[in-house]
Amino acid sequence: MADILRTALYLFISVFVILNYGLLLNGLVRKIVARAHGRVGPPIWQPWLDILKTYAKRSAISHGVMFFLGPIFRLAGGLGTYLFIPAIYGSVMFANLSFSGDLLLVMYFIFFGQLGMALGAGEGGHPNSAIAVGRGLSQMTSFELPFALSVIALAIQYHSLSITEIVAAQQGGILNWTIFTNPLATFAGLFALLGMNMHSPFDIVLAPQEVPIGPPTEMQSSFLGILQTNRAIFLSAKLVLFMNLYLGGATNIFAMMLKTFMLYMLSVVVGVSFPRFRTEQSIRFFLGVPTLLGLAAVIIFML
Amino acid sequence: MFTPDRSKYPEIVDGKAVIDLDSGKYLKLWQGPQHPGVTGNMSLELIVCGDEVVDCKTHVGYLHRGFEKLMERRKFIQNFPIVCRICVPEPDTNEYLYAAAVEEVAGIKIPEQAKWLRTLNMEMSRLTSYLMWIGGHAGAFGLGPIGQWAVTHRDYMLDLFEEWTGGRVYHMYMIPGGVRNILPDGFDRRLEDTLQKIEKLMSEIEKVMLNNAVFKMRAVGLGIITKDMIDRYGVVGPIARAAGMKRDVRKNSPYLMYEHLDFDIITGTKSDAYERLLVRFREMFQSIDLIRQIMKYIDNSKNIHTKLPNVLHWKIPAGETYVKAESTRGEYGYFVVTDGSELPRRVYVRGPSYSHAVALLEDLIINVNIADVAGLMTSLHTYPPEIER
Amino acid sequence: MKEIIQRLKQQFTISNVNQQRVDLTFLSVKKEQAVSLISYLRDFEKFSHLVFLTAVDRVEDIQFQLTYMLHNYNTHQDLGIRVLIDREKAEMASIHHLWKQAGTYQRELKEMFGIDFPGSPRVDESFILEGWDNIPPMRRDFDTKKYSEETYFPRPGRESHDPESYMKSKLYPEGDA
Amino acid sequence: MTKETKHNPSILENNGLPEFERDYFCDARPEQSRPLAKYIEKFLNWARANSLWLLGFGTGCGAVELRPLMTARYDMYRYGIAPRPTPRQSSVFIIGGYASVKTTKRIIRSYEQMQQPKFVIALGSCPINGGMYWDSYNTINRIDHYIPVDVYIAGCMPRPESIIAGFDLLKKLIKEGQAEGANKYIENLDWYKANQKKIIKDWNMPDYNW
Amino acid sequence: MSLKDILSPFYVWKRAFEKPYTTANPLTDRPGAPRYRGFHDNDMEKCIGCGTCADICQNAAIDMVPVEGIQTSKEDSGLRPKIDYGRCCWCALCVDICTTNSLNMTREYTWVDTDPDKFRILAGAQENFWTGKETGYKLGEGYKLLDHDRITMPMVDPKEGIKSFIELVKGYSKEQAIKEADRCVQCGLCIATCPAHMDIPNYIKAIREDNIPEAVRILYETNPMSATCGRICTHRCEEVCSIGVNGDPIAIRWLKRYIIDQVDRKEIAKILRNEFKPNGKKVAVIGAGPAGLSAAYYLTTVGYSVTIFETNEKAGGMVRYGIPEYRMPYEQLDKDIDAILDMGVELKTGVEIGVTESFDDIYKNYDAVFLSVGLQDSYSLSITGEHLPGVIPGIQLLDDVTKGQIPDLGKKVIVIGGGNTAMDAARTARRLAANVTILYRRREEDMPADQEEIEEAKREGVKFITRAIPVHIDLGENKKIILHWNKAEMLDQGPGKRPKPVLIVGEAYTEAVDTVISAIGQSPIYKLLPEEIGSQIKFKREKVITDKYGQTSLPKIFAGGDIVNDIADAISAIADGHRAAQGIDLYLSKQVKVK
What value of ipTM does the predicted structure carry? Predict the structure, then answer.
């Protein structure tokens, strides 16, 4: 019982930290992007205010049960992703619920949220949501391919489906990181990350110009609040996962922050520089170089 | 002759495509009234099949203020402040054309210096409008920074307008008979500073936007307008020029002081969204060059205004005329009919994007990916306030 | 331009030719001949560009004057063609088959002036206005100020004095001639 | 709800409709919302004031000065203001100057789609007393007849600085708990509806409506 | 697509390391430009409330409203522009057209409020956050909306002019008149000042529209002697003309003259067409001066039968006998008079009341009597020697010249006085080939004569000696008259009072001349009134006291003209006549039909 309670407490702390870290990342990146725009940018605590404000809305309308469940699924996806990733290698508090086969579960959770969201957005009924969900799902499947290939290559390379083990295998020096031991898989994975992070050129799903705001068009008040919460958690979860897979994980919280920040900056640097792809263009893109890289990585380690 | 490829329609009955919305194959999508891709409000009623547009109806009228009616019950001078509101992002062309039309029917000759100042105003306004446009165009494809930079530089131009005319957006400067004020002291220096800033910006835009792989993938081949479509749809301005037509009112029927300026008509060949961007981009440099040329002729000591009859009861003899000028979007014209009274009988405003916005867009948009609709619209450079007036 | 007018005169009954500027001429033609004249100009005289099509309400003559402005890109000449049509039963042949954008102009004329163009695409749909149930607003007999005051409630609390009558009331009131 | 029914007058008689369909004609009666306990509300108001999402619906010329405001020179993001493309998520509606009848219909619809608390800022002369279109047959003269307005900004066009000042005032009002336009709208719904119906004769919305 | 196209966009990040474009504090860092068109500011002192700003505003944004602390006076309507910022579009046409340049704009541009009803401001009167802030937009350089320059009136060359009595002013041509009329902004400030309250803006408008019949009709509504007033009116309307604040006032008098010059007697009759049927009531008018003629005209238009009794051979009164022909040609006066007589007025000339006709008879036979005998006596100089043969009153000279009895003034003439009569006398004397000097006790700026009269006199070679008080007159040799005068200095009498001339001891001069003309004012003679009637009429300082309708304390007797009003000019007399006509109408018919 005490174990469970302690785990629960640790999980709570872990989620709380990662949520705030996600918001901090968000605030920081807004500031950085603003600089590239030649602006000052919003204060770094703006994401907290936004999320508070959204929850504080006095009214909300729902279009049905699925509309209500959509954000819940999304949050479940985000939490699920995070909770099965060990955030800091060697830390009990941030070990979360990692277990030997967690990599597979995490990969499932990464896409679980999207699907839930699709249902909710679909019930919202706004054609923009529907179109964006269609775009999102097709784009998702396309970047899933290089990502899956990359993960497979890693699994083969490390003979493990446990993230903790993969991290453990990368300890002992910078050159042990996957990025150096298996650059092909890493680049395939990082391309997939670009797609996952929904930054340009892969943000057609949320594009305010092409389709106003995409799936969450009808989401408001606490529904949106849940989505915002999830966005913070899910973002950091993805980054932590990628850090664990390719950058050797983190042994303390500062290393984690630094590495995830660097990973996120990759998306940002590319995102500000390029306009967005159309859906079929991004599909074509992911099925091109990244998939080939992933395939090559798999093949190399198969051999 | 261009006819859009409507092969994706399910069936053609009596030469008309029938789209059964209930079949589940099609989705009706409303874009607008407010859409980030358009300056102003208009809406597109799109029928989409998957990601592609199979039919489009444009709906305008969200910004209709009844200008032409209002002008019929205002005195000639009272119309001068309101015409600039017809086209919000590019007000000065309206001011010039109204003033020029009134001067022509009233038989007023304006001093040469006033013409120079007007020319300067028009070119600065062209540059300002293009800056706003290029920001919007980049934004329509998701290239945010260009919009941020370009609108900021547009603001630097507005600062100049503000110190020159006293107004930021609406300048109300080209009053019938001439202009309202001379240039302030030190204006030429600040203008040159701003032009240099804009030139720097343009080099940055060239690197980030024009030489951008993704941008090219989106814009090249988008919305190709063939030569025979130009006349068929009444297309004017940079769009016609991007199709290789040497059509520029400034050169073809010179007005103000353009015949004394040294410039060429910039044309393109490929006539897609990217080519139109290139033409406009080069025209921005052309504008900067023209502004520099014009500044050599500005002399603050010269007369800038012809004394008008008392404007409170100014009657203009019966007559009619059509004057036109090259705006950023092409031939902008005013058709003015007077009947000898204190009020104009009819003022018709010929906005250049009128035909782009409705007739051309509706056909050009067929088979375009909905993600590109915004880019296509900005590429046609429509300003709904001037369509609806 | 003179030669063109001469040629036109051989085929059509044109009147009121008025050269406003070197590059701008107006002429009037009968309603029946208008469309064939315009087609002729487009196809044989290279007036390939329809600049605009609009109407002037000549309410005192119970007529609408339609003005078709054509442009020749070779000679850079504008040619305005005036056509008078009956105001009571305002109807005119459509030219949307000559230029695509003419359909839009005609829709606008139908809505703003109530001039019908049978056969023009979407001419009966509302164009700019929505739910308009008054006389077409661009007609001269429509009083926009009155309509606005009756419909949109100007903000109350304003009063103005005419200096002349105010001074009379202050300085030489009634009976003081 | 297709376009063909548009000029059918019977469709405009909404009285017989059930409650859930009234929304199609902007005729549903929204629910009043009450502030929470004093200090909690104060805290939430502080958050609301510093996170203003404005609806990206520039209804008139005013939109032209929103662009500089959004971009680098004025950078409204640093004041916690950000544009939002959907009314559902927005809390501030900027009436950008004149509103034609056709746009007024969309303004009302968008306003009703926004979630409470919601705020309205009116730019320029036109929404105050008609502005330069005071005698136009197609523009309304006073926006406060149709939706409640919190802050007016004088000018034609107001400079971006003025708009920032307007936002400052709005923030002050929100923090003081005075920006209760949404509740005012609900309390006086019949009056607002009567005004709206007087000018908007065609209440049909585009084919989908939420 | 090339590698360059992939790498080049990353250039965007260069900006991140440069200074942001953002203005740190927009609310304070960026004041409006020096020419910025911000909120209006109005100089309350300079503004005259003409309302031209309200006229030009296409948005009907400007209301003219009364303001506390601003009194309505003849040159100030007392109204001030109140601007509705729910209408204003900041076009600044109101600033451009402001007749006084009082209306300007500040550089302040930020005004946010929660109450839409607050956006109305009495610019300059109400305390605002922009009160006292820097001025922004002003009228631009090299551009004007108003025309400040009067169309020059063609005149006879002074050298030619003094050779005869031909009219000096040639009158406007049609183009000139329309152009001059076009300058008017139709504010209507002038109406209050005109004693007759003529509808000046509208007759100017009629000129502009070239609608002479309409103009004539407007003129006759308030003034039946426009040919006269168009020439010799003291035109105080032009002093308050709003255009005159920054430029030349509209030539209202010349425009009036232009109207009446365009029509002849027959046309006037056709335009005026008396439609009233005789009502059988009879009114006697004593004195055919402007007041009498005016009263007669208006009474006739509503059906009274009027008889005018005049001592002189011809009607016209002081206008004919007191104003020289070069200013007031007799045929023009005749045109006015004939037009009135055409209406059916009976004129009896050569009637001297009390001699050829008894006042009592008139009083009994007529239903009402209008007394407008004018001022016939001149003030005496009250110095020794004033009765010497070479000393004559100014009006005497003018009267004689009119009657054709040209006196011999000699070579050297001195005119004492500074009024219009003095100028007329001096210039008449010039035309009789004399060297003329005007002697006036105060300074030139104190002279009651019209400025243009003074200037024209100078141009014609009349010399001026000011601050000169005549002391006494002697008879010298060769029938010469020696005038002794003394230089004076002006003694300030405190604020609001006219400075008083005081002799400077020791500065005495003498001048030997042929004739001395005294023109220092006139006084009435009431000897025509029988004792019992005269005693019932109340007087104050020689002037008859009347109510606003010209009715004296004897109900049946009305009075007007110079014997009533203090201004004593033609237009006041005409106004008196008009009012008396209304009074008589009210008295006899119990209603006012006279317009």
Answer: 0.85
